[in-house]
Specification:
With 179 residues, the chain is of the alpha/beta class. It is 21% helix and 37% strand. It has three helices and ten strands, in the order ββαβαβββαββββ. The chain has a six-stranded mixed beta sheet. It has a four-stranded antiparallel beta sheet with strand order 1-2-10-9. Helix 1 crosses helix 2. The longest helix has 18 residues. The chain is globular. The protein starts with a strand and ends with a strand. The protein binds inosinic acid.
Length: 179
């Protein structure tokens, strides 16, 4: 098992690149089936979801569009309790079937607030695909992702787009904090 050190802490490999690929394919298969007669609009939540999004989107065989939004809720390893829209939606989403692509749903605050915002902007439907989901920590029922690639306990992870203070997004696997 691979281990890495980041800012004096040891992280061990938890999901290998092969395991990630399997789970991403399963998410894409479900979306392809559920959106057979629809043309979804993917809203990628930057920064963390860019790697997951690139992998999911290339497995979608429906006609679709992709747009980006940037929000921030974390400082270091803890949530601040409020999301900031750093890059707002650049696209008219009225009447669109939106699928949000997120790296990880932790307390669910980001998705909860984002879903409200997307419905306010006129989305016909909003569903969420997330690489990771922490079911024991989610505080908002509407934030439970319809398409979770993998569930995880209340642990801090990095890699595959997930960062620690901006670092480690480039790791090809998902690593878990060891302590
Ligand atoms: P939530 O709003 O509490 O659900 O937090 C969601 C956001 O927090 C994610 O999009 C990540 O950016 C960040 N986050 C939550 N848990 C982790 C983690 O274990 N590692 C890295 N980032 C995390």
């Amino acid at each position: 098992m691979r281990c890495i050190e980041e800012q004096g802490h040891i992280f061990e490999e938890w999901l290998t690149p092969e395991q990630i690929t399997e789970r991403v394919q399963a998410v894409a298969d479900r979306i392809n089936e559920d959106y057979k007669d629809k043309s979804p609009l993917f809203v990628v939540v930057l920064n963390g979801a860019f790697v997951f999004a690139a992998d999911v989107i290339r497995r979608i065989n429906r006609r679709c569009k992709v747009t980006f939004i940037r929000v921030k809720s974390y400082e270091g390893t803890t949530s601040t309790g409020n999301i900031k829209f750093i890059i707002p939606l650049q696209q008219n989403i009225e009447g669109r079937d939106v699928i949000v692509l997120e790296d990880i749903v932790d307390t669910g605050l980001t998705i909860h607030q984002l879903k409200d915002y997307l419905y306010e902007q006129g989305a016909a439907s909003v569903k969420v695909a997330a690489m990771l989901c922490k079911p024991d920590k989610i505080q908002f029922p509407d934030a439970v992702p319809e398409y979770p690639a993998q569930c995880i306990k209340d642990e801090f992870v990095i890699g595959y787009g997930l960062d620690w203070e901006g670092f480690c997004r480039n790791l090809d696997a998902i690593f878990k904090l060891k302590e």
